[in-house]
Structure prediction request, 452 residues.
Amino acid sequence: MTLEDQLVEALGAAHVVTDPEVTASYETDWTGRFRGSARCVVRPGDAGQVAAVVRLCGDAGVPICVQGGNTGLVGASVPVDGAVLLSTARMSSLAAVDEVSAQVTVGAGATLSAVQAHVRPTGLDVGVDFAARDSCTVGGMVATNAGGERVLRYGTMRAQLLGVEAVLADGTIVSRLGGLPKDNTGYDVVSLLAGSEGTLGVLTRLRLRLVPLLAGRAVALVAVNDTGAAVALVRMLRDRLPSLEAAEIFYAEGLALVRSQSALPAPFDQEHPAYVLVECAQRVDPTDELLEALEAAGAVRDATVASDSRGRHALWAYRESHTEAINAVGVPVKLDVAVPLPALAEVVAALPDAITAVEPRARTILFGHVNEGNLHVNVLNAVDRGEQVSDAVLRLVASYGGSISAEHGVGRAKREWLSLSRSAEEIAMMRAIKRALDPRGLLNPGVLLPED
Ligand code: 2HG
Ligand code: ZN
Prediction:
């Protein structure tokens, strides 16, 4: 029996796909930069079926690549050639919300927006949110330790995670979904799986902590002179406004690109060098306190505030449309970095020259999450020089004590630069963990750890 026949026996023919027209959409990443070729796509329905897939692939010595919503931006969800691509799409269960504990258990394949829609009627919400919410899956969010727009208030995905069910490389099912917030009984295996990018186990269910759903919201788009002014503004708002939930940054060039790809009107009657988008959220309307804080702030060139849902979404659209607008004009080299806040302005000023030094035609669009010093460096017209551009950006960032991956993960895109952010001792420790849990390197080979 071929591996495909055995997989059909375990999952049913409907859930083992070999038709190249169907598998094609799983074989390219969202940006169009990373490609692979899977021998088939399997769609297990639960941990038991995942365990069967893992055992069969292990016996056949065939690697497995795990894919959620395929919205990842570092090439980690694209298969190495000849791998079995395991899609989590069918594992999208949503258990009843535990309102007493403010927790919920969901399948790894549930999209973020499905979980939001499921929990919000109970007055609770998911602490992490970002633009890919309609397609990204909770499993992928945990596997990459996704960050997004509310890290300032609630932390990254790891901070939302109270339990996991996962299948290890030998087919063992590890289930720890009890959700006790206090539980100091040994190694934190749940946290270890967050950010492991599918290299240590296949996540099948997740237990998430929930946060209060805050209906009183106000969003301000604030025009400022430069990154330094943006950092100073956010620091001041953070000190003054306990309701501050998001602080994002983008620049004139990004706004022009977004507007060229959409029907969005100009937010102000003139252009400005840089823009900060902030959102406040609490039980009662925070508009007055946001306005007062903005009035007290020094370096505001212009500002517009929206409290109603339509107005707030319209302001967020300027920021959240960046990714799609960039992809609409070409395949970008994407780098997601973080630097210490005091260095952010200097790094932003240095980046364009560092990039054009290795690719003079490059067009660099910067935006990101200002409070975490997290910049999304998107470089167009540079995909043929992707290695050199990545090298220049990541070395610059590392020289400021920054991280080569703030929130998207390492994936295939950045693994050869891991030593810029992690010491040799840490990488050796990571390799030892990988060897202990997946000695044959079956799970997501080519992702996260550099070539040995
Ligand atoms: C965001 O913050 C995402 O919108 C995507 O992390 C960033 O497209 C990007 O580079
Ligand atoms: Zn981001």
